[in-house]
Amino acid sequence: MPQRPAVKMITPNQEFFYISVMHMAMGMNIILLILSIYLFKSTPNNLLKYYIYYLISALLVMIAKYFTLSFHSGTTSLTEGTYLEYLFATILAIPYSFFCFEGFKVRQGTKGLKWAWWTLLILNFAHLLYTAYAWITHIEKHQENVFGIVLLAMVFLASINLIIHASLQKGKSLFQVFIIIGCAFFITFLLIAAILENHLKIGLTRGMAGFYMAIIGEMLFFGIAIALSVKDKYKEGQELRIIGLQYKLEIEQGINYFAVLINEHATIDNMLWDVTKNCISRLGLQDCVIYLMDPNRAILVQKAAWGPKNLGENTIINPIEIPLGQGIVGSVGQSGMLENISDTTKDDRYILDDTMRFSELAIPILSGKKVIGVLDTEHENKNFYTDRHVQVLSTIAALLSDKIENMTIQHAKREKEMEVLKLENDLSEWKLSALRSQMNPHFIFNAMNSIQQFTYSNDVDSANHYITKFSTLMRKVLNSSQKSLITIDEEVEILKLYLDIENLRMENQLIFKIVVDEELETDAIKLPCMVVQPFIENALKHGLSGINGIKTIDIQFELIDEDILLVTIKDNGIGISNSLMQKAKNINPFQHESKSLNIVENRLKSMRKEAEFKPFIMEDIWESGVIVGTKASIFIPI
After folding, report:
1. Per-residue pLDDT tens over the stretch 563-589
2. Are the CB atoms for 26 and 62 separated by under 8 Å?
3. Which among 82, 117, 160, 432 is most buried, taking Cβ atoms within 10 Å?
4. What residues contact 363, with CB distance under 8 A and at least 6 apart?
5. What is the sign of the dihedral through the CA atoms of 353, 355, 356 and 358?
6. How far apart, in whole angstroms, are the C-alpha atoms of residue 613 and residue 564?
7. pLDDT at position 49 over 60
8. For residues 247 and 388, is the Cβ–Cβ distance under 8 A?
């Protein structure tokens, strides 16, 4: 490193002054830095952030002075700057520039203000690069050669230019005035220090001492500006909070009004008309249209509309129908996402109706993720619809969705009640028919109880499926009750329908199998109607009802003699013995004494006039000393 010239000696009074100034600057810097960091945690903003960077950079300059005094004794002094100090001083100019950018609001300022700031920033970077280059290449007195003096003068002139443009800005706030004063104070004091040293030979403010005194004033004015800025932001925040509360109150009042309005209607059409009419009067809209989805055709159908075309009647002569994906409304119906079009002339999806309107807001009416309608409104002004409109109308759409869904559920419930009532009427007729037939009343009454319980549940689809099967079964039973004998095919078909219905009632926990011997002429051999069903019913009620899990019934038809048809029914229930024991202990007692098996026995005996003839045998099924089910063997004369 080149040899530096001998250090000029200073008096003790001057040394005391220099040290006092440096300590004052450092102390003030640290206090302001701590306060700024604490303030930044509660109210973060860019102006305060760059002020903190500025204070840190200034602190590094002062630390550099302590460093040079400690490690370069005899080669530097309090009043002279070193390469390191000059480097940190030029670094300080960068956060200073960005602090001015935020403080003077350059982004929103005039073109002249922007050019002034960019000029200062570029020159400050150039000065930083030059200082770093001088440090690396060891240029002696780099601040005093022609290039250094010209560059520093340009930086000063650019600073003055920025101050002038900032001063000419209209509508300045008080904190901006203090930033201007701080910048002007720094430039002015450094110029005065240079004049005192170089022309009047007064050295009290020369070198870095003048810089410290200038930066003390600048830090103070900037600190005052920060405090005023935070105060303004706090005041602005309070005002915004008040406006926000008023805005929220207005929205809540509007939503509450529509909530009451929607809730008081009993029909969907009247509700939709009332909503469209009140959207015009309450929200200042020009027109409002509500479309509902036709799920069968995937088309949005106009249900209510209020606006200039409306004649004051709740009727639409030729309702508009919009296919999904067509126009703005169709696009919303397809995507399920709201659309706020600020300028319809730039959207080729816009469909002209009666007159051109430049704003359109379309909001989907959703049931879960499914679009059931669209609320649409247009206005003649561009950029008309605000966040308030979006929020209120979105809430209205949600309220409509809930109400429509509830009304639909109530309508379906009423329809189901009508179906149940009709079914009960039909069942009453079936009861009368069953009474005429002495073979099947027990089955009819039990089946009616099952179907009534099922139809009162909330599963409409399953109830309809159940009703369909039951109706089919009833028709076949009533037809067969008019005959004395039916074929094996007809009996098997009736049994399958009966077991299907019981399986639905048992939530698909019943597994049944019907096997017919291949040698049987199922379309020719005939047997009495409904002689097998009571045994199956008996198995379901007394055997299988006592077990959990899967229930099985196996039915087999076979010919054991020329005139005897054997029907075997096996189940995996609790068995006859256990069933009787439960009955004796009053566990799961029968509600009434079943006479169906007695009827079957009497009927079959009447067909075979033999004293020793036993129409059926019922016995437990044993495996490894344990009852695993029941077997019923029915001997049917043919």
Report:
1. 899 999 999 999 888 888 877 665 544
2. yes
3. 117
4. 332, 338, 374, 375, 376, 390, 393, 394, 397
5. negative
6. 11
7. yes
8. yes
CA distances 218 to 85, 90, 211, Å, are 18, 16, 10
From the CB of residue 345, how many other CB atoms can be counted at a distance below 10 Å? Answer: 10
CA 605/CA 361 separation, integer angstroms: 82
Q: Are 221 and 359 in contact (CB under 8 A)?
A: no
- Hunting for tokens 């017919």 — which residue is that? 516
Q: Residues, the chain, total?
A: 638
3-class DSSP state of 371: strand
Say how many CA atoms lie within 13 Å of 197 toward its Cβ.
17
Residue with tokens 């200042």, as numbered in its chain = 284
Model-wide pTM > 0.70: no
Amino acid symbol at 243: I
497 close to 473: Cβ distance less than 8 angstroms: yes
Q: From the centroid of its chain, how far is CA 479?
A: 58
Per DSSP (E only), the strands in 83-238 are none
Of the candidates 554, 557, 453, which has an alpha carbon nearest to the alpha carbon of residue 504?
453
Q: Which residues pair with 3 in a beta bridge?
A: none
Q: Contact, 512 vs 546, CB < 8 A?
A: no
Question: CA-based diameter of the chain, in Å?
Answer: 152
Beta strands in 189-274 (DSSP E): none
Which tokens in the block code for residue 171? 């509508």
The residues facing 623 across adjacent strands are 626
Of the CA atoms within 13 Å of residue 287, those in its CB half-sphere come to 23
Alpha-helical segments (H) within 514-627: 533-538, 576-584, 596-607
287-309 residue pLDDT tens: 889 999 988 888 999 888 887 66
Looking up tokens 């068995």, which residue turns up? 575
Q: What are phi and psi of 488, to 5 degrees?
A: -60, -40
Q: Which of 243, 328, 245 is nearest to 291 (CA)?
A: 328
C-alpha 566/C-alpha 597 separation (Å) is 16
Chain centre to alpha carbon of residue 552: 47
32 membership: H or E segment, kind and range: helix 12-42
Query: Rounded to an integer, what distance in angstroms lies between the CA atom of residue 499 and that of residue 347?
Result: 62
Question: Residue 291 in contact with residue 301, Cβ under 8 Å?
Answer: yes
Amino acid at 426: D
H helices then E strands: how many in the chain?
16, 13
Terminal Cα distance for the chain, rounded: 130
Q: What's the CA gap between 483 and 617, in Å, rounded?
A: 26
Share in percent of the chain as helix, strand, coil (round to 5) = 60, 15, 25
For β-strands 299-306 and 321-323, DSSP reports them as antiparallel
Quote the CA–CA distance of 161 and 55 in Å, as a whole number: 23
Q: How far is CA 124 from CA 44, 151, 157, 161, 349, in A?
A: 26, 9, 12, 14, 53
Higher-confidence residue: 315 or 559? 559
CB atoms within 10 A of CB 239: 10
**Residue 624 CB partners (closer than 8 Å, separation 6+):** none
Q: How far is CA 270 from CA 325, 420, 633, in A?
A: 28, 29, 66
Residue 513 and residue 515: Cα distance in Å, rounded?
Answer: 6
Asked whether the predicted pLDDT for residue 435 surpasses 50, the reply is no
Strands 626-637 and 564-571: antiparallel
What is the residue type of 296? N
